[in-house]
Structures are given as structure tokens and as C-alpha cells.
Design a protein that fits this description.
Structural class of chain A: mainly beta
Helix content of chain A: under 10%
Structural class of chain B: mainly beta
Number of strands of chain A: 11
Distance between the termini of chain A: 36 Å
Distance between the termini of chain B: 35 Å
Largest sheet of chain B: 7 strands, mixed
Oligomer: heterodimer
Shape of chain B: globular
Number of helices of chain A: 0
Shape of chain A: globular
Radius of gyration of chain B: 13 Å
Helix content of chain B: under 10%
Number of strands of chain B: 11
Number of helices of chain B: 0
Radius of gyration of chain A: 13 Å
Order of helices and strands of chain B: EEEEEEEEEEE
Largest sheet of chain A: 6 strands, mixed
Order of helices and strands of chain A: EEEEEEEEEEE
Chain lengths: 111, 114
């Protein structure tokens, strides 16, 4: 069954604004990963954050992890039209990439 | 090696027919995963291999589904006696065995059962 649940499900923002998505999960994890998927395409890995990490950055992306609340957030700063995509969080319980995905966040960036 | 390759990209089949998909992982990766994704949902885990050994199968993988990775390189996923409910995107991913390493996904095979 799917473990991650993203909130909000759909987000529409103007180019240049920041976009924040949250993900909650139910059980203890080894790591949590965020992926992006453009319509009808495969998934692209964005960031992996380990259970003993609290924050991680990659370019315009910032991910936080709060294991006490079993939640994570993905922040995209200074969004661009090319950021329009679905964003998924996925939990890895044992560090073996056997991932449990949430339902995803549809983000639309309006030029 | 430019990434994980899946073939075919699209497959339309009649209900009751058998279909087979192929996945070529990144050559250095010893782990290979299959996921299924239906419209509006996140991918769901089906099975994974470490080299040629199939280490886990999801309950989603009914007896009509079989996956192989005979030489520890490419993998095939076969669906026998397809049903309309099998229509989905089938995604393959690969990774190193080491913990906390990212998985790389292919573009997927979209199956439509008519």
C-alpha cells in the first residue's frame, strides 16, 4: 500500500513564486526521496534525505524531514514554467530502494 | 550508457493476450525494480531483483504476472491473459546495491488492454 501522502494535491503558482509541498508517512523509514514526473514520462530523482538528516538542498530545491512528525516538505524556490510536473515523495524503509510512493502533487507554474 | 531503457514504450493488446516488456538497467547497477502506475496515482511496487535473484514480490503481482532477470542484466515482465485492469504504465528502475542510493527510472511502458 502507498505510504506517503502529499499535501496539497494540486498547486498552481505564478512563475517566480515559491512552491511548497508536504508529505506524511506512517512507519519508520531509512530514507525519503522526492521525484518529479512530467506528464506521461518516467520519474526523475530529485533528492534523497536520510532518516538522520533534517534538511537538504539541491539547487533551487530544499527538502526537510521531521521524523518525530513523520513528515517531509519539498520547497521549490523561484519557480519556472519548466517546473510544471507531478512531484512524488517515496519512503524507503530498509535502504534498498523498495519504495512506497504517495499519490503525488500536481504543480502548475504559470508563466 | 544513457540510463534505464524500456521497450516497447507503448503496447495495445486485446484482453486475454499475453504481453512481455523488457527493461535494460544501467549496466553497473545490480538492483532492478518493477513498478506499476495507474492514472492519477503514484507508482506501486511490484517486484525487485538483486542480480538474478528475485528478492521480493508484491501481493499486487498475481500469478498472471512473472518477472525474470536471467543473467542479472536485463529483465522481462510478462503478463498472461491480460485484463482491462492491467492497463497502466509499467516502470522499471535500477540502482546500486548500497543503501541510501538513488534509483533511476526508465520512461515506462504504457499498456492498454482493449
Amino acid at each position: 500500500s502507498q505510504q506517503g501522502e502529499e499535501d496539497p494535491q494540486a498547486l498552481s503558482i505564478q512563475e517566480g513564486e515559491n512552491a511548497t509541498m508536504n508529505c506524511s508517512y506512517k512507519t519508520s523509514i531509512n530514507n525519503l526521496q522526492w521525484y518529479r514526473q512530467n506528464s506521461g514520462r518516467g520519474l526523475v530523482h530529485l533528492i534523497l534525505i536520510r532518516s538522520n538528516e533534517r534538511e537538504k538542498h539541491s539547487g533551487r530545491l530544499r527538502v526537510t524531514l521531521d521524523t518525530s512528525k513523520k513528515s517531509s516538505s519539498l520547497l521549490i524556490t523561484a519557480s519556472r514554467a519548466a517546473d510544471t510536473a507531478s512531484y512524488f515523495c517515496a519512503t524507503d524503509l530498509y535502504g534498498n530502494n523498495r519504495l512506497a510512493f504517495g499519490k503525488g502533487n500536481q504543480v502548475v507554474v504559470i508563466p | 550508457d544513457t540510463g534505464v531503457s524500456q521497450n516497447p514504450r507503448h503496447k495495445i493488446t486485446k484482453r486475454g493476450q499475453n504481453v512481455t516488456f523488457r527493461c535494460d538497467p544501467i549496466s553497473e547497477h545490480n538492483r532492478l525494480y518493477w513498478y506499476r502506475q495507474t492514472l492519477g496515482q503514484g507508482p506501486e511496487f511490484l517486484t525487485y531483483f538483486q542480480n538474478e535473484a528475485q528478492l521480493e514480490k508484491s501481493r499486487l503481482l498475481s500469478d498472471r504476472f512473472s518477472a525474470e532477470r536471467p543473467k542479472g542484466s536485463f529483465s522481462t515482465l510478462e503478463i498472461q491473459r491480460t485484463e482491462q485492469g492491467d492497463s497502466a504504465m509499467y516502470l522499471c528502475a535500477s540502482s546500486f546495491r548500497d543503501s541510501n542510493t538513488e534509483a533511476f527510472f526508465g520512461q515506462g511502458t504504457r499498456l492498454t488492454v482493449v
